[in-house]
Design a protein that fits this description.
There is one protein chain. This protein is mainly β. The chain has a domain of 183 residues: 3 Solenoid (Pectate Lyase C-like), CATH 2.160.20.10. The chain has four helices and 28 strands. Its EC number is 3.2.1.67. This is Exo-polygalacturonase. Belongs to the glycosyl hydrolase 28 family.
Amino acid sequence: MVGLRRAKTVLLVLVVVISNTIADGAPLDRGPKGSVAAAPLGATVPGGGNAAAPVGAATTAPAGAKGSPAAAPVGATAPAAAAGGLAAAPAGAAGAAGSLDVKAAGAKGDGTTDDTAAFTAVWKTACEAPGPSTITVPKGDYLVNNIEFLGPCKGPVTFEMSGNMKAPATVAAVKPNSGWVDFTNLADFTLNGNGAIFDGQGSLAWKANDCAKTGKCNSLPINIRFTGLTNSKIIGITSTNSKLFHMNVLNCKNVTLENIGIDAPPESLNTDGIHIGRSVGVNLIGAKVKTGDDCVSIGDGTENLIVENVECGPGHGIAVGSLGRYPNEQPVRGVTVRKCLIKNTSNGVRIKTWPGSPPGIASNIIFEDITMDNVSTPILIDQEYCPYADCKAGVPSKVKLSDVTFKNIKGTSATKTAVKLICSVGTPCTNVALANINLVHNGPEGPAVGACANMKPVLTGQMIPPACTEIAKPGP
């Protein structure tokens, strides 16, 4: 009888344990035949405690063990334990690479050690992960040679920067139109610069540059290139002392650039600040540009572009073009430049096309709400643009300009000719409008004037200086 009671008690205990296990949603893990395996490390057991690891059991799965989580990728930061003592999913779980730290991958960030290999390693890991990945760049100065962060990637990648990147100071020939730091063929990419600096160390290159004489500058690297990006954001980065153009945005779609800095002295030759071409739906919102060439240049194939809140100077102003230098250029359509300050520059806002050009189109272009401060020729259309004396003199430009508006533009002109509009004699401009213009010149030559050639603008509102009182001539 006693034996029967004991058997019933044991059976009742087993029923309770099994019931609690099922209620908790944890399936029974059968070990050897007839036994129940110990609860895994960190699992909750009846009574609220955490189960201890079985005696002699390894607390981490061996590398490559079937069914075990993948080892943390190169440079990955281990996730913190979740509240309550439950372990967070390791890096690599659910297809994500997690957070990848370039210093954990071997980067020094001391400004002298070549850190190219570490950046290459973490990028490879991040780009191959199916889920979202973040690459972190801690404080420091990272010396990096020419590097390409190449996609397409399997999942979205975020570049989170607190440190700066630094190019070699040497002047070495590179492939034409190549870059120092390239981001290529990426979707849903984010670069959070947090004020990070990309230093091209270009002072030696400027001295060796013969751009002003020959126009041939392609042997030097562009500081940063964004090529083939889609649905991406570039935020809070600064390019300094580039050897050639600072920043190229090419073949992109739906890309936003915010809080961009460009910093180089006026003597830095052919260092366009931000060049945008062959792209659709780019927004440049907020930039401070100091350089030796155009602050912002807009190339062929650009459509639906917004440039807003740009401070430009020193430099050559904000330009559409130059256009028409090469065959098969694509139309420029739907460009808006607004709410900008241009100061101490050799031009303000301008459109420039080459004489003797192949046929081309630039239309629906608006410059509005712009302040000029000591700017030479604040408003300019120049369809006889010929900076290197190697164009077909006397052959009109075939780039057709139409529906161009200059509106609410005010300030001071450093030259007597504040407005110069030179259209092509062979392909005249159509529907060029001036509205609410107030540009003054206080030099000894007298008040500001407006000059035109091969065009008649549509005028509305205030007009200082009066439009087209002189015949515009090519040249400065």
